Structures are given as C-alpha cells and as structure tokens.
C-alpha cells in the first residue's frame, strides 16, 4: 500500500449490489482512481431495519474499509446514509487522515430541486429511508418552497436483487408505487435506492416521459471529484485505476449478479466476516 494518501483507494459500500450503479458512474468519471467496494449481502436488505441497526452496520463496515487504507468513504446506500451519516462523519474525523464521508441523499435532493419545474418532487425509497425524513430535510434545505411526496417501496429492492431483470412482479410493484406520484402531479422523481436505476425503463414508462428521474450516481461522482480536489487527494496517475470487491455473503453469487449491475467484469470477490450476525 502506497504511503502517499493520494494513491489510496476510494471505498464504497452498500447493502448489496445496488451500489454498483453508483460505482459505475465513479469508474467512468474518475478513471484514474482505485476503488474498493463492499456489499453487505449477508445482511441485505437494509430497508426494513431499525436506525440503530443500520448505524451499527455502517460503523462496522467503515472500520473494515479504514483498515484497507481508504482515503474517502462513499455510502452508496440510501438507508445507511439516512440512518448513519452523522455517526460515520464523526468517526472518520477521528482518523489520522480525517477521512471524508459522502452519502447519496444530499446530491440527489439538490439535483431534484434544480430539475423540478412545478415544485412537486416524488421520492421512491425503502421504508427505512422514507421514515428517516432525510430527503425531506435535504430538499427543504435546498429550497423550502418545494414539496416532496415520498412513497415507500419495501418489495422493490429485494425483487431486483433476486430476479433482475426478468421478474414480472417488478412491473406491478412499480405500477402501485408510482400511482400516488402521478396523482400528485410530480414532474421529478428521486430514486432513493441504488437498486432502482436498474428498472429505470419501467419507471419512466409508468411515470410518463415528461417526468425527470433523478439517480444518485452522476451527482455523487461530481461531489467525490470536488472533495478529492479540495483535499488534494486526487490520484496523480495517468493510467487506469484498479477496482476490488468484498462481500459479506457468497462471493460467487455476488460476482454473478454484480456483473449485471456494474456492466463490467468483476473479477475475484473476497469474502469478509463482520461481527454482527445476519439476523432479523
């Protein structure tokens, strides 16, 4: 491992493989950086867990990634961001390097406020993310005159993870979720879960072509690039960076499903064991 902090990897984590949609944007926009991705598939899904559980999981994962010399931590999980971002930021400030933590909520909220034309924004997210109120706070901070209409979709992420792209139940779940958003007249919809971009064509068809869909990857990648520049942590290399994968669940299952989410070959996946059991 290089002693130069600029050559250390950017760490990304998610409850499963959904965060690979975020990693894909990071790889495209920051091709010279190294990345390490951890998917907590043994404890997936996060969407129905309590805030205390999510905070404990997130802090545990952060310690694992700190041990692998991460220079920046990206929380590519909306539920974990909503429940644990302040605790993660406090913990990372205690490190020698002072590692920054970036979550997916604020970049999406700001992008949605910029995009809306009628001041009506929809949110599709997990139960935990909706219950946290994190998006309401972020949208209000960006523009207090914009209205947010949140809808919880507890079934959607597990369906995508288990059956993408062929499970016909996905269409019916999406149809039920977007109905109240259409009735509310939203012109912009935030996808508040990193799994949801995988079914964006279904979402766009059922929402209508005039509704703008906001995903976390592109906005988050811009924020990562800004932080790296501000902290003088951007890699100086001119060649392609490397990317590695960790999974708390079955590495073979992760690699098979993950390659479809990332749209790139994954290579070896390392199994990691964290302290808390995958109990419900």
From TrEMBL:
HAMAP family cross-referenced by the UniProt entry: Glu_racemase
Organism placement in taxonomy: unclassified sequences, metagenomes, ecological metagenomes
Key words of the record: Cell shape, Cell wall biogenesis/degradation, Isomerase, Peptidoglycan synthesis
One BP term from GO: regulation of cell shape
Matching PROSITE patterns: ASP_GLU_RACEMASE_1, ASP_GLU_RACEMASE_2
Signal peptide: none
SUPFAM superfamilies, sorted: Aspartate/glutamate racemase (SSF53681)
Organism listed in the record: freshwater metagenome
Name under which the protein is recorded: glutamate racemase
Enzyme class: isomerase
Listed InterPro entries: Asp/Glu/hydantoin_racemase, Asp/Glu_race, Asp/Glu_racemase_AS_1, Asp/Glu_racemase_AS_2, Glu_race
A GO molecular-function descriptor: glutamate racemase activity
Catalytic activity: L-glutamate = D-glutamate
Enzyme Commission numbers on file: 5.1.1.3
């Amino acid at each position: 491992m290089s002693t130069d902090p600029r050559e250390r990897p950017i760490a990304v984590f998610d409850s499963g493989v959904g965060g690979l949609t975020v990693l894909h944007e990071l790889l495209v926009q920051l091709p010279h950086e190294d990345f390490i991705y951890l998917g907590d598939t043994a404890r997936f899904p996060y969407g129905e867990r309590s805030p205390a559980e999510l905070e404990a999981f997130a802090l545990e994962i952060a310690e694992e990634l700190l041990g692998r010399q991460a220079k920046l931590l990206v929380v590519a999980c909306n539920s974990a961001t909503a429940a644990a971002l302040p605790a993660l930021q406090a913990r990372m400030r205690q490190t020698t390097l002072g590692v920054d933590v970036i979550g997916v909520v604020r970049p999406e909220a700001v992008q949605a406020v910029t995009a809306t034309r009628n001041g009506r924004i929809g949110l599709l997210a997990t139960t935990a993310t909706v219950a946290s109120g994190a998006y309401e706070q972020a949208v209000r901070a960006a523009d207090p005159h914009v209205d947010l209409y949140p809808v919880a979709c507890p079934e959607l992420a597990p369906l995508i993870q288990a059956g993408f792209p062929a499970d016909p139940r996905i269409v019916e779940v999406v149809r039920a979720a977007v109905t109240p958003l259409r009735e509310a007249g939203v012109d912009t919809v935030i996808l508040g879960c990193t799994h949801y971009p995988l079914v964006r064509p279904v979402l766009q068809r059922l929402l209508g072509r005039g509704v703008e869909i906001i995903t976390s990857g592109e906005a988050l990648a811009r924020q990562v690039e800004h932080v790296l520049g501000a902290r003088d942590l951007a890699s100086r290399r001119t060649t392609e960076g490397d990317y590695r994968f960790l999974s708390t669940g079955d590495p073979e299952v992760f690699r098979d499903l993950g390659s479809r989410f990332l749209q790139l070959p994954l290579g070896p996946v390392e199994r990691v064991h964290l302290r808390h059991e995958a109990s419900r």
